[in-house]
Amino acid sequence: MKLTDEIRKSLRIRVDYTNMTDKYLGEKGISQKTLEEHKKLAKSAHAYVSGNRGRDELFMGWTELPYNQDEIVADILETAKFIRRKFEYFVVLGIGGSALGPSMAFSALCHLHYNDLPRLKRRGPKFYVEDNVDPVRMKELLDVIDIKKTCFNVISKSGATSETMTQYLIIADLLEKAGENVKDHVVFTTDASRGNLVKISKELGGVKSFVLGDGVGGRFSELSPVGLLPAAVLGIDIKAMLKGAAYMDKLCKTPDLKKNPALLSATLQYIAMKDGKNIGVMMPYSDNLRYLSDWYAQLWAESLGKNVTLSGESCNVGQTPVKALGVTDQHSQVQLYTEGPFDKVVTFLSVESYKEKSPIPHGCESIPDVSFLGGHTMEELIQAENRATAFALTKAGRMNYTILIPEINAFTLGELLYCFELQTAYAGAMLNIDTFNQPGVEAGKKATFALLGKPGYEGQKKALDGAAPDPEYIV
Ligand code: PA5
Q1: pLDDT of residue 2 exceeding 80
Q2: Cβ 218 under 6 angstroms from ligand 1
Q3: Does any domain span residue 465?
Q4: What is the CATH number of the domain that holds 38?
Q5: Which of 182, 209, 238 lies at the terminal end of a domain, its last residue?
Q6: pLDDT tens by residue, 315-368
Q7: Are 221 and 365 found together in one domain?
Q8: Ligand 1 centroid to residue 99 C-alpha, Å
């Protein structure tokens, strides 16, 4: 993608926060005065994030990903070319931050029925992201791939995540039984020097590996090799993704709320959270962006859901992310959003130009209930429904705002991802918490180790056995 300043400007995503304000929501909305009062906090959050850019020890290495990966990107493109030529199937094995990004980019930028297209149209291998240890899913994946024609991208920063390593053990065993050299079928994305995948790579004689840098946590890793290799295998323009992220970074250099979309969104959400809006609904009006909500849910939930401040005081903060899809969930959840408790902020992701318009033919002329649709396009319909839902929510006094996306492409996806990452970092700074740790996730991982008898976890196993459910309470 050739990007002039003009093209960049035309692809700029914008935030319309009209429906958060008291002008439209009356006393349920945010007043100019409240926004003014939060400017100081927003400015200091901005200064905190800007001042700590790139600091690996604070897990802020992700801020520099749009700028420091020239050699890595070249290597990724080379590797992807080889994989596209050699393999019929490409399977990501990973979970959480190691899987949600690849799934999201796949659905955002590829054909919605990519795997069903003939190879000539796809031009790349069939693509699967396996982010669970459901035994049925594992078996049924193996039913639809030919392991001899498959490349597995094992993504795990720690190399110690039970789910991913279980999947690895299964596929390594199957490859060996099929007479294949495991090394020829796997690419690792992992820590530079620590972790089990580094050891396994050595044992196998040097597996092609990409590094997930020290300062990049799983949920902030989509613009690292975690996301870039799968995207490149799919033929996605990863350079444009990084350029979109850099463009968003540039827009967010200013602490001026009215010019920095990530800081504005963080401030609106912060004010809303203080006002008891404990639920944040992400509602894209686009099937392509459906999994962006899953990716965002992890980013927002795992980063902000914390019980202690940076100053050591106890707190229980965070906002529960809820995923909804426009228009589908208008016929499912919107009733609750409009008339239920006043505990939500709805973020709409609105697309200004869809890659298809799909004209609606005239017909059923004797039935006005149907014939009025003829002559419009499906693009007009989905956009009208988006506007109508925002209008209905606003009329009912419900906070909502819209992120306007000129079109969905690699550049705008890069903008969006970087915008949400910055928004999350700003919001965490406002809440004065550690945005980048996840002790709650680690606790579950350790309990699983104990239950399955990992050496060193005997004490925890005892405690878990002691806490077995009392039959009295099982009906
Ligand atoms: O965001 C995170 O840190 C987590 O969701 C991790 O990505 C997830 O637990 C997987 O960890 P790992 O990459 O070490 O296998």
Answers
A1: no
A2: yes
A3: no
A4: 3.40.50.10490
A5: 238
A6: 999 999 999 999 999 999 999 999 999 999 999 999 999 999 999 999 999 999
A7: no
A8: 9
Q: Are residues 191 and 266 in the same domain?
A: no
Cis peptide before 198 (omega within 30 of 0): no
pLDDT tens-digit map of 121-150 = 998 999 999 999 999 999 999 999 999 999
Residues 33 and 128 in one domain: no
Last residue of a domain, one of 238, 259, 278: 238
Together in a domain, 310 and 404: yes
Say how many Å lie between the CA of residue 127 and the centre of ligand 1: 21
**Checking phi first, is residue 33 left (phi over 0); if not, alpha (psi -120 to 50) or beta?**
alpha
Do 266 and 313 lie in a common domain? yes
Q: What is the DSSP letter of 403?
A: E
Structure tokens at 354: 């869809």
Q: Would residue 456 count as lying in a domain?
A: no
Cβ-contact 216, 59 below 8 angstroms: yes
What's the CA gap between 395 and 242, in Å, rounded? 39
Is residue 192 assigned to a domain? yes
Amino acid at 18: T
- 168 membership: H or E segment, kind and range: helix 162-177
What pLDDT does residue 320 have? 98
- 446 catalytically annotated: no
Domain total for the chain? 2
**Catalytic-labelled residue, pool 40, 113, 121, 331:** 331
Mean pLDDT for the chain overall: 95
Q: Is 339 a catalytic residue?
A: no
d(CA 92, CA 314) in angstroms, rounded, equals: 38
* pLDDT tens sequence across 440-474: 888 888 888 888 888 888 888 888 888 777 778 88
pLDDT, average across residues 50-73: 97
Residues 174 and 142 sit within 8 Å (Cβ to Cβ):
yes
The residue from 445, 446, 454, 461 that is catalytic is 445
Element (H, E) at 347: strand 344-351
Binding site membership of 154 for ligand 1 (Cβ less than 6 Å): no
Is 346 found in the same domain as 405? yes
Same-domain status, 247 and 127: no
| Ligand 1 proximity of 412 Cβ (cutoff 6 Å) | no
For ligand 1, say whether the CB of 438 is within 6 Å of any of its atoms.
yes
pLDDT computed for residue 38 by the predictor = 97
Closest ligand 1 atom, CA of 445? Answer: 9
30 alpha-carbon distance from chain centroid: 28
pTM: 0.96
Ligand 1 atom 2, closest CA: 218
Which range of residues forms the domain containing residue 349? 5-56+240-431
Mutate to test the pocket of ligand 1, among 130, 132, 161 (most ligand atoms within 8 A of CB): 161
User: Would you say residue 168 lies in a domain?
Assistant: yes
Residues 331 and 346 in one domain: yes
